[in-house]
Amino acid sequence: MAAYKSVGYGSRGADVSALQQKLNEKGYGLEVDGIFGDLTRGAVVDYQKKNALQVDGIVGEETWGHLLQSAVPSRPTASTQVLSGVSDETANRLSQLEQGYTPSDEVNAARAEQESLAALQPKEYVSGFDAQLSALYDELSARPGFSYDPAQDAAYRSYAALYERQGKAAMADTLGKASALTGGYGSTYAQSAAQQAYGQYLQALNEVIPQLQQQAYGRYIDSADTLAQRYALVQEAQQAEYEQWQAAQEAWERAVERAEDKTAALEKQDKSAYETMLKYYADKAEAEQKASGGAKNNTGAALPSEKQQSLSSAAAESLQRAITNYCKGGDAVSAAALYQQYAGRMTPAQKKKFDALLGRYGVSV
Q1: What is d(CA 116, CA 114) in angstroms, rounded to the nearest whole number?
Q2: CB count, 10 Å around CB of 10?
Q3: 275-296 tens-digit pLDDT
Q4: What is the structure's pLDDT at 208?
Q5: Which of 16, 76, 83, 134 is the most exposed place for a label (fewest CB within 10 A)?
Q6: Is this model's pTM higher than 0.90 or not?
Q7: DSSP bridge pairs for 297
Q8: Which residues, other chains included, contact 365 with Cβ-Cβ below 8 Å and sequence gap of 6+?
Q9: Could you tell me if 117 and 325 are in contact, meaning their C-beta atoms sit under 8 angstroms apart?
Q10: Are 105 and 312 in contact (CB under 8 A)?
Q11: What gap in Å lies between CA 237 and CA 232, rounded to an integer?
Q12: Torsion angles phi and psi, residue 297, rounded to 5
């Protein structure tokens, strides 16, 4: 017996492909894609129920062992049970129904639509603003504390040049006026008066320094505020981007929930119809036995196989949505595989619609 590892919902790989092949040998029409999705899990649970195995949807040692046995059919055999007083048609139909519930096309197509939504799940959120925010934060963090050096202040240097010119001019003017008072000759008084005039302008320059320092501090604060505003604007853009992603994620989750509810409702309806049919044929067999008094036996031969039915419009619509989801999600392989799985049962009109759909997305089959 080949050794396979335990697999369950979400598993992928060669072991899942082997499982799907083995289930198909037992009569399940699964796509062998190596992905343990809802359809594969449904087949596993159904197989476990029919063969009195632990029903957990996980293929471990017990289920693998049963699957790998050479002759353990889980579907009706070619012949029916011989029942006294029951017609071939009733015995055959009852034998088929007693093998257990088999999902209808509508249920399988709804599950396929549900599984296809995985192709549309938004990718994990990655901010497009992280680098910009990081650079702005580093710029803010690296700013030195405020200090003021007049020699480095262009405004101060401009004032200094102006006051120096004005001081020299005042000194020359004062010196000239003082010399005139002494008959044009220089004197200690004249030089002292000129120097005093020049010093007044230098004092005026010193007095303007606090004002210039305050202006420099204002520019320092304004620069920090500008950086902070830029950082806040980028943060707002990032938040808007995240909220857009979050809305898309929530919309996707709602779509998945609706698909799950739809599949569950269809399966419940499907199983109810199956149970009704099982009871109907069981009651019919009992009625035929009573009516015939056990005088007539069925032959035990299987009736001719019924012609495979075309896809119902409901199943086709679900499959169409599933293929659309795969195409929109860029999974052309799954779209083509799902189409090929059902193409043989499509009506000409359905096939035309599906071909047109795949053609719009450039998917070749």
Answers
A1: 5
A2: 10
A3: 999 999 999 988 988 887 755 5
A4: 81
A5: 134
A6: no
A7: 84
A8: 336, 339, 340, 343, 358
A9: yes
A10: yes
A11: 9
A12: -105, 150
Q: What is the pLDDT of residue 304?
A: 52
Q: Which residue has the tokens 């010399």?
A: 179
Tokens coding 24: 């198909």
The pair of structure tokens assigned to 190 is 């004249």
**Residue 7 bridge partners (DSSP):** 59
Spell out the residues 6+ positions from residue 298 whose beta carbon is closer than 8 angstroms to its own: 80, 82, 83, 86, 87, 88, 90, 91
- DSSP secondary structure of 83-123: -BT--HHHHHHHHHHHT-----HHHHHHHHHHHHGGGGPPP
Cα separations in angstroms, 181 against 176, 186, 188, 189 = 9, 10, 13, 10
Torsion of CA 202, 207, 208, 210, to 10 degrees: 140
Three-state DSSP at 7 gives strand
